[in-house]
From TrEMBL:
<keyword id="KW-1003">Cell membrane</keyword>
<feature type="transmembrane region" description="Helical">
    <location>
        <begin position="81"/>
        <end position="102"/>
    </location>
</feature>
<keyword id="KW-1133">Transmembrane helix</keyword>
<comment type="similarity">
    <text>Belongs to the binding-protein-dependent transport system permease family.</text>
</comment>
<protein>
    <submittedName>
        <fullName>ABC transporter permease</fullName>
    </submittedName>
</protein>
<keyword id="KW-0813">Transport</keyword>
<feature type="transmembrane region" description="Helical">
    <location>
        <begin position="210"/>
        <end position="232"/>
    </location>
</feature>
<keyword id="KW-0812">Transmembrane</keyword>
<dbReference type="InterPro" id="IPR000515">
    <property type="entry name" value="MetI-like"/>
</dbReference>
<feature type="transmembrane region" description="Helical">
    <location>
        <begin position="17"/>
        <end position="37"/>
    </location>
</feature>
<keyword id="KW-0472">Membrane</keyword>
<feature type="transmembrane region" description="Helical">
    <location>
        <begin position="164"/>
        <end position="189"/>
    </location>
</feature>
<feature type="transmembrane region" description="Helical">
    <location>
        <begin position="270"/>
        <end position="292"/>
    </location>
</feature>
<dbReference type="InterPro" id="IPR035906">
    <property type="entry name" value="MetI-like_sf"/>
</dbReference>
<feature type="transmembrane region" description="Helical">
    <location>
        <begin position="114"/>
        <end position="134"/>
    </location>
</feature>
<feature type="domain" description="ABC transmembrane type-1">
    <location>
        <begin position="77"/>
        <end position="291"/>
    </location>
</feature>
<dbReference type="Pfam" id="PF00528">
    <property type="entry name" value="BPD_transp_1"/>
</dbReference>
Length: 302
């Protein structure tokens, strides 16, 4: 009994010490994240304007009704989801393929690993401006090359054409973010035990069968983490679309919509409601993704 009491007291002391060490981090988290988030939800129930944020009255869910009745909001939601699904899918496939290539025993793979990170290391705004100039209908290098090849006879306004601007934004995002996927998936590949592949080779298992039966199942957690990070990033995408297509409704994301209402129209209530809706949308998508992944892992017995 005495030993059990001592153990319980020791565990309680360790728990108090752990919370003591965590307290500064929790205070910083509260100051920079939870407090602004709480204020955003608070203002979403008011009629506050950015010009006089201290003068407001509570109006209940009226801002949310206004938001959900706006067709432009739903178009922004569709644009965001379309961008997220297409870009993350392409980046995952390319990231896996390039990671497998870089993980193979080949000369110069160290150099390739360094070079492939360059697009991801460049700030998004800088990359967007760079691509904006390369895609320019009069001075862009892409149109110049296509003219020399005889593919086109006049410059194409890639970022001004409503049918082309979203694919262009997705292509630029793939160029920027695929190295991130490569980095995470490659780290997972390097942690896989070599012995199982040696045993499979001795048993005469083909390389394709090794990939589908061994590599993919074992690599699933790394891919899941990489996809989750990209989902969170893609759902709140702002800068790339804003720089390449400015205020076009065809590429307006939910983040651009919230910024437009809050800054351009000075409507702090509806802008806060849009920001709160974005937070909830990302939380729901993340929860569904994590739940589905866990269920799949249980069904597969991994």
């Amino acid at each position: 009994m005495a030993t059990g009491a001592i153990r319980i007291g020791l565990n309680a002391k360790r728990a108090r010490t752990a919370w003591l060490f965590l307290a500064p981090s929790l205070l910083v988290l509260f100051a920079v994240a939870l407090w602004p988030l709480g204020r955003t939800f608070l203002f979403s129930f008011t009629d506050a304007f950015l010009t006089e944020p201290d003068i407001y009255a509570y109006i209940g869910l009226e801002n949310y009704f206004t938001l959900f009745e706006d067709a432009l909001w739903w178009q922004s939601v569709r644009n965001t989801l379309y961008f997220t699904v297409v870009s993350v899918s392409i980046e995952t496939a390319l990231g896996l393929a390039i990671a497998l290539l870089l993980n193979a025993h080949m000369s110069g793979r160290g150099f390739m690993r360094a070079v492939i990170l360059i697009p991801w290391s460049i700030p998004v705004v800088v990359s967007a401006r760079m691509w904006q100039w390369m895609l320019h209908d009069q001075f862009g290098i892409l149109n110049h090359v296509l003219k020399l090849m005889g593919v086109i006879d006049h410059g194409i306004a890639w970022t001004a054409n409503p049918d082309l601007v979203m694919p262009v934004i997705i292509a630029v995002d793939v160029w920027i973010t695929t190295p991130f996927m490569v980095l995470l998936i490659l780290a997972g590949l390097q942690m896989l035990p070599k012995s199982i592949y040696e045993a499979a080779s001795i048993d005469g298992v083909s390389e394709w069968r090794q990939f589908t039966a061994l590599t993919l199942p074992l690599l699933a957690p790394s891919i899941a983490v990489a996809v989750l990070f990209r989902l969170l990033d893609a759902l709140r995408m702002f800068d790339l679309s804003f720089v390449l297509s400015s205020n076009s409704d065809d590429t307006k994301t939910v983040s651009i919509y919230a910024r437009e209402v809050l800054v351009n129209f000075q409507d702090m209530g509806v802008g806060s409601a849009a920001s709160a809706a974005i937070f909830l949308m990302i939380a729901v998508v993340t929860a569904i993704y994590v739940t589905v992944f866990r269920l799949n892992r249980k069904l597969l017995g991994v």
